[in-house]
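This part of the workshop introduces the protein records we will be handling. A record pairs a protein's sequence with a compact description of its fold. As an example, a complete record with its sequence and its structure tokens follows.

_____
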Amino acid sequence: MTLVAGIDSSTQSCKVVIRDAETGRLVRQGSAPHPPGTEVDPEYWWHALNLALEQAGGLDDVDAVSVGGQQHGMVCLDARGAVVRPALLWNDTRSASSAADLSLELGGGDMEEGSCRWAQAVGTVPVAAITVSKLRWLADHEPQTARRVAAVALPHDWLTWRLSGSTSLEALVTDRSDASGTGYFSPVTGTYRRDLLALAFRREEAQAASIILPRVLRPGERAGNGDPMAGRGHLVLGPGCGDNAGAALGLGLKPGETSVSLGTSGVVAAVSATATTDPSGLVAGFADATGHFLPLACTLNGARVLEATARVLGVGHDELSALALAAEPGAGGLVHVPYLEGERTPNLPSATGSMFGMTLESMTRHNVARASVEGLLSLVAGGMEAVRRQGVPIDSVTLVGGGARSRAVRQIAPSILGVPVVVPSPGEYVADGAARQAAWVLSGAAEPPEWQPRTVATYDAEPNPEVLERYREAARLVAASFVH
């Protein structure tokens, strides 16, 4: 039996799956936590990766490995390959004003024009989350550190590089799915936009040309071999992928199919045969891991909305679901707008969460639980609407992530999202996608292998537009109070 490994280096942890390359059958797995926060020394990722690999039984009998990683994280290296500062993660919002500055500058002082130009150039508009905004923040707030930067990588690029054992910055590689989340790579042309990188660093384009960016590999292209000094020289390395593209690959999504992931963030990702350009910035025109595109809307707030509510109510997740399902739809008029960490969709990085419709009758534990579930799903519904406005149809969704384990989320989702909801058997979808990519690279085939299908359950319900409309009105009130 030929074995392959898939790695998911996410915001919260590192997960490893070892699978049969032919069938996809899970053989063993491991995991290790990452430290909390919105900036992290990448060495913690490397330490967690090795702990997770050890827990998964190591790589001695594994033939290939690929890394899926959290997108947008800014990993800056000096000329010797040392990390110059802790990586800023996607959920670090300090670069919000930097993002606005970039759009203004590209538009010649016109924000709307600048957003259009960014969308046309790379499929995305600068927001706090993406790498190009973080590089501008670095140039403005830590200029001495910015001057030391010789290479810029993303989390999965850096981990693949470490697995290779190379110390040469020229050996850095990435793939188009993760590169498309930087803000300076076009998934349509397949090339970096050095002029936009120069704009971020406030350098002349000729100066920015000296900054090394990872070589972008084709889907299924071999990235090299593992580190022979670490006993991993037998390993074939895949190009890796961004976590959202990895999940789509792990789920086997094809053009026309959409996933909704409720993890640290909430993600609506639709595999599409055509690229999208959204000047509003709500939908990022990413690439997927197979050669197609992945129009994506991402919220900062995901399953942690449920965790926070469970903590306030002093219950576990199962009891939270029971409370929510015992309440009537609409939660007695209680509406939760869950911008607990600011928000990206809509772009309100400084916003806070709000509760509307509080009365003596509505303020019950059951209604608070129900409102948290309905608020989270309504937030995701906004992401789906933004994707649809790009001409991408959504007739059903595949629901995954930690939030999908909630019975209340599964049962309430179809009425809020307005479409049937398919929930596959639990799995580490990003790591599974990375493992499938590793098997693809190892085989040398033109397409990724067709692995055994997952068991799924389908949930359906009559849409409840009244709940969604009440949420939209409450969200408009919140937005008005944070937009100046």
In short: The longest strand covers residues 13-20. The chain has a mean pLDDT of 95.
